[in-house]
Amino acid sequence: MGQFEQATVQKKANIYYDGKVTSRTVTLQDGLKVTLGIMLPGVYEFGTEGPETMEILSGELKVRLPGAEVWQEIKGPETFHVPGNSKFALEVFTVTDYCCSYPDKL
């Protein structure tokens, strides 16, 4: 899906790591929340409450998912899933465009 129809976008940005990772929260008509954002090159760690689906629309990075010993290479477009109540690490090599969805949060 290349676009969202009939959605509400929060004006205030979510800003992490001194502005190197930013996103905007979008609420879809059915109540599902997604974030659309950009990550600049760097190394980051994020925690999750519920499960997340990360859709990398463009960019190059590596991700280390919970319990994994090795980093997984991602070149957009590609998707990966993060379990709830966990932490994951990212090493971003190029400006990366992403969409994160939260299937448990309606």
Automatic annotation (TrEMBL):
Domain of life (superkingdom): Bacteria
A Pfam match: Ppnp
Catalysed reaction equations from the record: guanosine + phosphate = alpha-D-ribose 1-phosphate + guanine; adenosine + phosphate = alpha-D-ribose 1-phosphate + adenine; thymidine + phosphate = 2-deoxy-alpha-D-ribose 1-phosphate + thymine; xanthosine + phosphate = alpha-D-ribose 1-phosphate + xanthine
GO cellular component: cytosol
EC numbers, comma separated: 2.4.2.1, 2.4.2.2
Keyword terms of this UniProt record: Glycosyltransferase, Transferase
InterPro entries cross-referenced by the UniProt entry: Ppnp, RmlC-like_jellyroll, RmlC_Cupin_sf
Keyword Glycosyltransferase among UniProt keywords: yes
MF (Gene Ontology): guanosine phosphorylase activity; purine-nucleoside phosphorylase activity; thymidine phosphorylase activity; uridine phosphorylase activity
Enzyme class, first EC level, given as a word: transferase
Gene3D superfamilies for the chain: Jelly Rolls (2.60.120.10)
Family of the protein in this entry: Belongs to the nucleoside phosphorylase PpnP family.
Function in brief: Catalyzes the phosphorolysis of diverse nucleosides, yielding D-ribose 1-phosphate and the respective free bases. Can use uridine, adenosine, guanosine, cytidine, thymidine, inosine and xanthosine as substrates. Also catalyzes the reverse reactions.
Protein name: Pyrimidine/purine nucleoside phosphorylase
Source organism phylogeny: Bacteria, Bacillati, Bacillota, Bacilli, Bacillales
